[in-house]
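Batch 3, record 17
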Amino acid sequence: MEPTLQSIIDQKSLRWIFVGGKGGVGKTTTSCSLAIQLAKHRKKVLLISTDPAHNLSDAFNQKFGKDARLVDGFDNLFAMEIDPNGSIQDLLAQGGESAEESMAALGGMGNMMQDLAFSIPGVDEAMSFAEVLKQVKSTSYEVIIFDTAPTGHTLRFLQFPTVMEKALAKISQLSRQFGPMLNGFLGAGGQLPNGQNIDELIQKMEALQSTISEVNVQFKNPDMTTFVCVCISEFLSLYETERMIQELNSYEIDTHSIVVNQLLFPKKDNPCEQCNARRKMQKKYLDQIGDLYEDFNVVKMPLLTDEVRGKDRLEMFSEMLVKPYQPPE
Amino acid sequence: MPSLLLVMFILQTVLHIINTVGASTINELLWILYNKLPTPTSSSAQRAQTLKREIIRLKRELATTSPQDNFSTWAKLDRQHNKATAEYQKLDASLRTHQQTFTSTISTLRWLGTQGARFILQMWFAKTPMFWIPAGWVPYYAEWILSFPRAPLGSVSINVWGIACASMLGLVSEAVAASYVLATKQPVPVGGKGEPMAFSASAEKSEKAGVEREKEL
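Prediction for the assembled complex:
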């Protein structure tokens, strides 16, 4: 397979692109570069960071928030950063005074409920997911690129629709069975402490479920979703990549590209001992990658002498995603 | 219709064998045999067996391959291993449910064929004499017991015949087991107190020689 990401850019039906890998291998740089390349061929591109340690702002030298903001110097590239922890606080704050009143009415229980809500595993991802859905539904982006958090986190996030679907199916079934009884207890209005109606709540949940299952179907469709694995030519990174690819296969999420970052190309007569030794090691793992991932687009990116930050540097770097880098002799 | 005496004897033999070997062992044996026959589960059982062997082979190979030196070989093996394990687990689960139904069916059939058959025979032929005892051989109360519960006085009832068969079988099997043990296992010689212990002369000599040599040294 050709050693570029041209196939992703040519595949116009793609709607979701995930970029993931171990920490510190250049996920953010790669996702920004990919976004820049895509922006040249698509009408509207959105770049989302779900990593709690946000780097988009660093990469573009521009402050991003949880609303999509236009990236300076582009007219069709937007970026946003989702803070998984912030979302819950926002949600609680959205309830406003009525929520606070009801919390007060519950006494100590309110705080307890809050703590409980925070401690549910995967709830932060759930919130960021809901946030993304809200954004994506309201505006029409042609393609959305996710700059994901390091491996473990990413996979939980991707698995989430399946888990959520199961849980929601159970909840709505239960509430359909016991709803009338609960309403009988709570009186004709069926008012819950924070002024919500049970039926409304169920309806909301079912709406959320249908959105999620829709997105789930899209994630499993190789025409609409792909995952770009980023790694460096080292054992642990390679090991994590292999694990990730296996796991993605089990979730039926398509992946056919690997970006190998930070490769050294020292000149023949280079006296730097470390560089040559490292080059030898990288070469070994590169050969293994070529052997193992025959049917993948393996993109080899060089280690540059300066930091890849700012629009111009990123643009230059992104060129190498589509035109293979020619190492100097 | 074979002789009722023989039927009862065979029934008791089968019951005795089942009790000695154990019902679960017989169930498992039958399950293995069932899978050897061209039955619906036989192909998946064979597949599970080959997968099991494959998994063990792959595990061994994985252990001998260094992921640092031969990552691609190792990863390919790992993929095969994961695939085989997943398939095996799926097959195993479905086979297990099949086995459960099989076991319960077999247990029911076995019960009907042995205990159930015995009960029915005992009910049906309760009034039939197995054979007659010559008059005056045993006193009246013994005759009464032998004909218990409903056979005509002076004959042996089916129940008593069954009990007699069972106790005979028990005795015979014990005797067979004991003689087998006697024949195959070497008795451990245990020297009693005060019994002279035999040593070969040459051993003693060499020992003495050894002592002398030590003295010389």
